[in-house]
Every structure is written in structure tokens, then in C-alpha cells.
Amino acid sequence: MKLDIKEIPFSRFGSYFCISQEKDSVYIRDVHGGDDAPSKLFQIDIVKDGVEREFEVRATEISLSFYLKDQTERVAEIIIPEEDELHIEVQDVELRLRATKGKYDSLMELEDGMYEYHIYPMELKLMIMNLHGDMSAQAPWNIIGNDYIDMRLKNGHFVIESYRTVYLKKEYLPFSQGKEQVEVYYKEWFDSMKKGYVKEKYQPSLERASYITWSSVVHPDGTLKDYAMYMSKLWMYNIWSWDNCFNALNLGEQYPELSYAQLKIFMDTQDVSGAYPDFVNDKFISYNCIKPPIFAIIYEQLMEKNDYFKDEQRVRNVYESTKKVMTYYENYRTYQGRLPHYKHGNDSGWDNASLFHVGMPVEAPDLASFLIRSYDILSSFAEMLGEKEEAARFKNQADTLFHLLMERLYDGDGFYGRVGKNGEKIAIRSSLILRLPVLIGYRLDKTIMDSLVSDLEANFETEFGLATESVTSDYYRENGYWLGPIWAPVTYLFIHALKNNGYKETGNRLRDKFLNLTLIGGMAENFDPHTGKGLVDTSFTWTSSVFLLLLDDQLRRV
Q: Global pTM?
């Protein structure tokens, strides 16, 4: 694959290193600390005969190469053969590394050809080594740090290794062997994502999705106790507690341990109140918002993909953790006699959807539907685990919540929301979020489901799929985040619900539209519903995971 590092960073499974391009500048970056932390380590320039030269970058899944403008000979190449090792090979030019440093950041030469770089904002150290070749550094000291850092690498093999505290000397693979090693690693991953797909139509999307999911994983560090698939290494380098579920679902068949780890990250950081964090990275755990309660919904599907998830202890872990989540909504998100509520659009994952334009808190039918579906699944899990009384209790809670949903948030015109401490009816009904009760289609009268599906087809379905705001709505906005653009996870939820509740033709049509959409918009965070253009972060894992899930669904013709 020809990798455009303006859209998809060059990286590898397990590494915090990545390389991306902003306008005409190419940076070596590190995504420790999450997306609020500075990530740029060095700007890369190419110098020949003392003059800075224009260059081109050509990247694949395995390596990133530099060519002088209008020349055919490669002058430098970068690989990441191990998770914390970035290797650089240079010939006939100087590769210049200019640090994007803070005031305390300090470079010091410890031995000939060994420079240690302390990066204070990231709580990170780098060892920059000359294995063989010419390396020099200009880094004038000024009391508390270097004024600037300008390093030159020429005619040789160099390594940048990252660590937290102390550097441990080791032997490094020759450059060619390191490159071969990465190729072996990636081929195994790609073959597992490909799942026997041989047609050419979706090959470009398959290549993008496979690489993005592989290269967006980071290794255990700090608060992360296992490998975590970040949403992206471009802009949104955290793991959020509903994005992770779609990634886990895609991994479940081929990589069950890694799949389960994506869920366990949040089960292990669950607050005493029962709430999962909004997001986690290696340094921070944030509880500012919550996300839709879908772990049990996803886990039920994982059990269909791989017997690994039927293990009694794992089922028990998810069961007990989900019970705490449900208790959180009961105790801390519900007024007496009312439905559970959101306190911000971010709680729903639909940050700026039109449903939330009036104010907070909001009783929303999607939240009630997630909870009802989760109670039904908890009831079935309880049966599996021999908890008969619990099974009956959860079934009763699902029934009670369903009756309250239909009483409070449904009328002859469909579902709606309520807002504020008095639960006033929200007049705005043009968001796709209000159609998510399709998740519990098995509980709805057929006339209601038929009406929901007709509404989807008439007011939300475009050439490329389901817009998140009705395209005729006054609230619709071009590139409006949740005010129109198509999103992968929502698309998946609708397709799965439709196909499992008697609307297979509609579900398959939406599936095929999304697969085709990726050929235009790639694996972006969201998409323009009229043009298919990829919007916002162009290297997103949950989009990639949903594509791979839906491609597999099409291959199986189900």
C-alpha cells in the first residue's frame, strides 16, 4: 500500500512512535500522554552539501523512505522493528532532526555516538545512537536546558529508543533484518483481517483498515496494563469506552485475547460508582463524561464469534462489571419516576446532536434502549451462570424500563427526548439518535418498527448511508460532526439491529453503501453524506473495524 502520511501516520503495532506530515513538514512523533499532550519530537529535514533540499516521502506499511525532489535514489529510510525502537538508515545526505522542545528538555552526550534526550512534558527519555555512520549535534546549553537541538545523521544506521527511566544496553538488529521482521509481523495481521477476501473491489479499503488497526495499537505502559488500540495516532490518541467495543468486536474472531483486553482496560478502571471512564491513555483516566452502555451488547456478539468468550469466568467478569454500570445509571442518573438521563451530549457519544441543543439533563430513547437491551442480556447471562433469581430480576427491570420508555418518550409521531429537571418535552426530533430504539425492535410492535424503518429510508438514508441529522433539517450542517455526517459505529448498530429484527434487505443495503463509502472517504472519523468525503481525523480505528466487520458480513452473505 502507498501510505499517505498526511492522512495515516506511519507506525507499527505496539509502538508510541509515529511519523506524520503537516503541510510540508514531516515529524517524528510520540503519542504518550494522550491527545492533549504534545506529540512532536523532531522535524525532519534533508540537507545535501550544506543546503536544505526539497524531498518526497514514500511510505508503505513496513518502511518510510525519503527521496530528493525529482530523483530516483532513496537517501534515507525509517523502520520501527521493535515497539520502542525507531531505526534510521541514511546515505549521501544529512538527515537533520530539529527538536520541538520545551524549556527544560535536555540533550547530553553520554558517550561517543550516544546522546540522551530528556523530554519533560512527556516524562520520556530517548537514547539516540550512532550504530555506524556520522552523527553530530548542535545543542547549546543555557542554564536549565538547550536553546535548541539540531542533530545531523549521515551515511549510516542510527537508532532512537524511548524509555521512562533508565536505558539498558542491547544489541540491535541490522537494518535489513529489522525490516524483514516488521514485514513478517504485518503479513500475519493482514492475512487475519483479509479472511480469504480475493476480489479487487474493496482491496484499497481492506489495506487501509488493516494497517490502521495494526498500527494504532500501543503497548502496556503507565495506566495501560495491556495492549490498547487507540482510536488514531493522528489526532485522537486515546481509547474511549465505546469506540473500544467496536474494535474489540472486530478482533474477537482472530485475536480474542487482544479483543478482551480492550474491554478489560475499562473494567479494571471502573469507578466505585459503577461508571466506566470516558477515556484512558497511558497517563490519564478521565471520568468527566460517560459513554453508551454497550459492553454487554458487544460481548454477546463476541460469544458468537469465538468460544474464548464463553469461558465462565470471562462471562462472569463482564456480567459483574455490567451490573455495576446499571447500578450507576439507577443511582446517579435517574430522577424518581423518570428514565436515566445524559448530562452532556458527549455522554451519548453524539456530542453536538440536535437533541442536545435545548439544554441538560436529557432523557433520551437511545440510552433507555441500550439499558433495556443490556438488562435483557444480563438476564441471559444470569441464566448461564446459574443465577435464577438475578435472571428474573433483570428481566423485570427490562420490562419496567421498556414500559416507561413507551410512556415517557413515545407518541404517534415517534420517539422524542425530555430535558431539564422537570423533564420538558423536546420539540426537536430530526436527529438519527431518536431512531436507535431499533436496538430493541424485538420488543416493539411491528407497526412501530415499520414506521421507524420507513422514517430512516425517507429522511436519513442517502447515497452513502445514514446521515446523523435529517438532510432536510434546519439543524443539518455540512461537516457538522453529529449534525449530518455518517458515522461507522452508528451505521453498524443500525445494520445489526435491522438484520436481527426482520429487516435484512434494508440492513444489507446500508451495509453495502458503507462499504462503498470507504472507497471514497477512506477510514475517516466521519463522512459527508452527500459526497462521501472523509472528514475530521482521517485515520480512525473504529471506522476501520466496522468496515472489516461489514466486509466479513458481506462475504458470509448473511
A: 0.96
